[in-house]
Amino acid sequence: MQVVSVSSLKGGVGKTTVTLGLASAAFAKGLRTLVIDMDPQSDVSAALASRSSHGYSVDSVLNNTSSSVVRQAVVPSSWTGPNDVPVHIMMGSPSVSAHDKPTPTKQELWKLEEALATIESQYDLVLIDCPPSFNGLTQTAWTAADSVVIIAEPGLFSVTAVHRTLLALQAMRLKMSPRLRTAGVIINRFRPDSPEHLFRLEEMKQLFGDHILEPILDETLTLQQSTGAAVPIHRWPGETAQTIARYFDRLLKKVLVEERV
């Protein structure tokens, strides 16, 4: 089982949309996939159109890491058919914000790792959608992760956010998790007709080098439409959707295979 945290220390870059795109690629590949919604906004839970009939969520899991609680917090998503390997989701909840402390204890940081150990044999891939901050929830997700993929857009504030995230990853390796690696930086919402975006993209390539993952994801309504309809991009009609799906196939392969320190 590989555990990947999807992170950005800046909001509004399409982090959840990219999480869903990577999940769609894993779904198309037939990987047994679990998506964990660590963001109190719970957008990825809404997009996967699922709800726990038991009222359990990731908040419940961080309060009690027993296998029985974990199993009840994990439910199948709507992405399923007769011959599919379903994507599962550990439901998000606004109440999980109680765990988003600026200085969590080491015992608190290990909670998600402990919970995942109870279901490790059931999944090939776990994707954790993190909140856009470096408080307790993101640190807990990183402690449980094998790698972190950083989401950014070609803008000034994203450049500084990527730099902060890379520094935070170095600190987490020293503090909690020596195995934690950087999977790379995915550039999202790129507009090739924007001089500012072209300038910032080149700047990011110069600053972060091999950390930048190709292909770059253009800004497109198609991805927003499939997300809003709770349909994986790999099953959305049209040539644009097929192109985006192929992009996410390539990005998933790089996130899972290419080690970037």
How does this structure look, described?
The structure is a single chain. The chain has 261 residues and is of the alpha/beta class. It is built from 11 helices and 8 strands. The longest helix is centred in the middle third of the chain and has 20 residues, at 156-175. It is globular. Residues 1-180 form the AAA domain. InterPro entries: AAA_dom, DNA_Partitioning_ATPase, P-loop_NTPase. Pfam families: AAA_31 (PF13614).
Count of individual beta strands: 8
SS element count, helices: 11
Instruction: Supply the CATH superfamily name.
Output: P-loop containing nucleotide triphosphate hydrolases
- Tell me the structural class: alpha/beta
Side by side, the strands of the main sheet go 3-4-2-5-1-6-7-8
The first-level CATH class is given as: Alpha Beta
Helix amount, in percent?
40-55%
What string gives the helices and strands in order?
EHEHHHEEHHEHEHEHEHH
What fraction of the residues are assigned to beta strands by DSSP?
5-15%
Total domain units: 1
In the CATH scheme, what's the topology name?
Rossmann fold
The biggest beta sheet, please? 8 strands, mixed
For the record, the CATH architecture stands as: 3-Layer(aba) Sandwich
Contiguous low-pLDDT stretches (5 residues minimum) are none
| Distance separating the two termini | 20 Å
CA-based shape: globular
Q: What would you report as the Rg, rounded to the nearest angstrom?
A: 17 Å
Mean pLDDT: 93
Q: What is the topological layout?
A:
Elements: E1 2-7, H1 15-29, E2 33-37, H2 43-47, H3 58-63, H4 67-73, E3 74-76, E4 88-90, H5 106-109, H6 111-117, E5 125-129, H7 136-144, E6 147-152, H8 156-175, E7 181-187, H9 195-208, E8 212-213, H10 221-228, H11 239-257
Parallel strand pairs: 1-5, 1-6, 2-4, 2-5, 6-7, 7-8
Antiparallel strand pairs: 3-4
